[in-house]
Amino acid sequence: MTEPADSPKSISSPTALLPADRVTVSQHRITLNRKSLAYTVTCGTLVLKEEAEKEGLSEGEKARATVFFVAYVLDKTQSNSGSAKTRPVTFSFNGGPGSSSVWMHLGLAGPKRVVLDDIGNAPPPPYSLVDNDYSLLDSTDLVFIDPVGTGYSRMVAGEKLKTYHDYQRDLESVGEFIRLYTTRYARWSSPKFLIGESYGTTRAAALSNHLFDRYGIALNGLMLISIALDMQTLRFDHGNDLPPVLFLPTYAATAWYHQRLSPDLQAKPLRELLDEVASFAMNEYASALLQGNQLPAARRLALAAKIAAYTGLSEAYVLRSNLRINIHQFCKELLRDEAKTVGRLDSRFTGVDRDSVGEQCEFDPSYANLYGAYAACLNDYVRSDLGYENDVPYEVLKSLYLDWGWDQFSNRYASVSESLRQAMSKNPHMKVFVANGYFDFATPHLASDYTFSHLGLDESRASNIETAYYDAGHMMYIHEPSLKKLSSDLHQFIQAASNI
Hints:
This protein is of the alpha/beta class. 35% of the residues lie in helices and 18% in strands. β13 (431-437), α13 (445-453) and β14 form a beta-alpha-beta unit.
């Protein structure tokens, strides 16, 4: 039997010569803040094209890729902010590089969320979704984007997948999708926001400048969840003494959570402890590391004792680490005597490896806790509730970061801090919200603080940045008390930055 031309399968088929947009539209309702809201979901793929003359071809455009998205738009009669086209719209994506948008889609912002317990533990399968009482839909329409190679987004037959797995090409393709959606769905008059997580903050910060320069799209705000703007703050390389300093408060938070500190430190409220450790890290500890091998022996021993006290590790281990504790080694070492490891994305979670003698964990228990639940719920939801069918795998998270292209940052650490500074200088109305988790080893909160204190932003723009902290990890929204607080913070931010 011949497939219809608009079948979702035909879009993903390698034999499809003329890919076409394929979307489904469905109507739904949700109750938020005791108010019943009707909304429309548009789910499917749009074709990204490039002008043919770029390659010296004949006139017209050439299809390059199909990008999967899920858009939630509040029905006109439900909007409290004038006409539908002037209602805020937020474009959302996660990180990796190589992650789909499923995490913030079904964990934070969308009208459905994966059922977890209050801590963030997934139940035994099968998994389920519930209405998300903390959704952002009552404040903004939402468009969740899967970058090329993730989710259901695919290259067109004959195109090289690697083409889009590059910092600049990723920026251009996501930016072009935002322009295309803004044009097709008449959102040029809407207040516009980006929300990104992890590498998604790298993308969002750079997009804020790219969208302005390339298309004249001025954003009202950025919501940056667990930031990765300056890779020098995160990479444990020989000769780079920033990460040992900036990770130290997160080591302390983790040791505190797992009851590995002395009674006097264990009795301190978490924020009080972290302020103390941050002060030590940025002053005494940082200046000592700058001395390298010139650090006096007595001073070295005294520092090792203090670092050990804050991290729950032994003085001997700290000394063998040359006072510089690697994050992966810490995750293996802290609970070694219990034959447990701690998570990288969220150090509240623990796992068990084959043995307890190695330097690195076999897997991240905080990611393993979530992966099955989010994958199952997304695959069921788009087909059963949204009516979109596609037989190719939904790529939740691919390890594209292993060979990601960084040509723009050749021979130096990648950093988009300057792009963000430029965007905020050109667009003085753009606001930035920064969310940090205390138990996040992927993007620690002190590294975030350091990045923004070194942004080089003019003092007149400093009040445009708002920072908040949460008692959870990289995906702080899996912890329901943090989700509640984060949702409230984001609602207030969107409403204040929308200027309507």
